[in-house]
Amino acid sequence: MPVLPTFVGVTPTAHDRNHGAGLRLTVLGCRAGMPEPGWPSSGYLVHLRDGEVLLDCGPGVAAKAAARAAELSAVFISHMHTDHCLDLLVLGKTLTQRPLPATRLPVYVPAGAAATLRRLNELFPLGGDGPGEHPADHVFRDVFDVVEYAPGEAIRVGEATIEPVAMRHRLPCCGFRVEAGGQSLAYSADTTTTPAFEKLAGGVDLLLAEATLEEPDRTGHGHLSAGEAGRLATDHGVRDLLLTHWAHTDGGWLDAQVARARAQFDGRIDVAVPDHTFHVSETQEP
Ligand SMILES: [Zn+2]
Ligand SMILES: [Zn+2]
């Protein structure tokens, strides 16, 4: 477990109370780039009334996601940077070691990613009597049903509608807008500012927004500063803001990122911390 930093006006543990069956989000990992001890890379579990959806599967996320395999309804990958997808194969191989489910787990990926993932699997055969002869080599035949999504085409998962929205990043990248039971949350994935935020997050109850940078991105790589995340939340009528994708994880730095967002957004602001659950239904005074 990470040592929890102190936060400006934020008490993450207060969110671990059971607030019933509303839409919830558990942070499995929230580190930008490669993980640190106790801080896996990107992975977020959305709890629906009728299942769970994993958004991204970066390094350090697979073991946690596998522990929820019985509840998992689908996996969505925002883009093919390793900090968002590299544990997908680890998750798949883990699931091949268990009794196989009656139906494969839908894994929604960007265009072109299905071939990349299959190639990756083939590059690391476990072997047995020959390449492809071990059960762990049959991730895509036995446990994953890989589907390439199209931006703007909503996907139904149980009670939820999940729409991929094209963002602005170095690689093609989609954020996801999740609507379920009259509640809504949006995940920015990796992006700089873009008009697509209105489609992604206009009026949502909770925006899970990357806040990677201290200052606006001048490199063209495509990330948000914490101040930009706060400004976007204000401009698009977001109720609550959950900041994530941390470049650093010490408490002082996180406090400063919250303060930068706070200068632009009057609503509730929380900090993504591994293994904490945030309740979308929760309405509290900021
Ligand atoms: Zn990233
Ligand atoms: Zn990225």
Q: Can you walk through the features of this model?
A:
With 286 residues, this protein is α/β, with parallel strands linked by helices. The two termini are 27 Å apart. The strands form 2 sheets. Strands 6-5-4-3-2-1-14 form a 7-stranded mixed β-sheet. Strands 7-8-9-10-11-12-13 form a 7-stranded mixed β-sheet. It has one domain: Ribonuclease Z/Hydroxyacylglutathione hydrolase-like (Metallo-beta-lactamase, Chain A). Helix 7 runs parallel beside helix 8. The chain is built from 8 helices and 14 strands. One zinc ion binds next to loops.
**Count of domains:** 1
The largest sheet is:
7 strands, mixed
The CATH architecture can be named as 4-Layer Sandwich
CATH topology: Metallo-beta-lactamase, Chain A
Widest β-sheet, arrangement of strands: 6-5-4-3-2-1-14
Tell me, what's the shape?
A: globular
Low-confidence spans = 1-19
Quick description:
The protein is α/β, with parallel strands linked by helices. 22% of the residues lie in helices and 25% in strands.
Top keywords for this entry?
globular, disordered N terminus, Metallo-beta-lactamase, Chain A, alpha/beta, seven-stranded mixed sheet, Ribonuclease BN (tRNA processing enzyme), RibonucZ/Hydroxyglut_hydro, 286 residues, binds zinc ion, 14 strands, Metallo-B-lactamas
What's the topology here?
Layout: E1 24-29, E2 43-48, E3 51-55, H1 62-66, E4 72-76, H2 82-85, H3 88-96, E5 105-109, H4 113-123, H5 139-143, E6 144-148, E7 155-157, E8 160-166, E9 174-180, E10 183-187, H6 196-201, E11 206-210, H7 226-235, E12 240-244, H8 251-262, E13 268-271, E14 277-279
Parallel strand pairs: 3-4, 4-5, 5-6, 10-11, 11-12, 12-13
Antiparallel strand pairs: 1-2, 1-14, 2-3, 7-8, 8-9, 9-10
Bound molecules: zinc ion (2 copies).
One zinc ion binds next to loops.
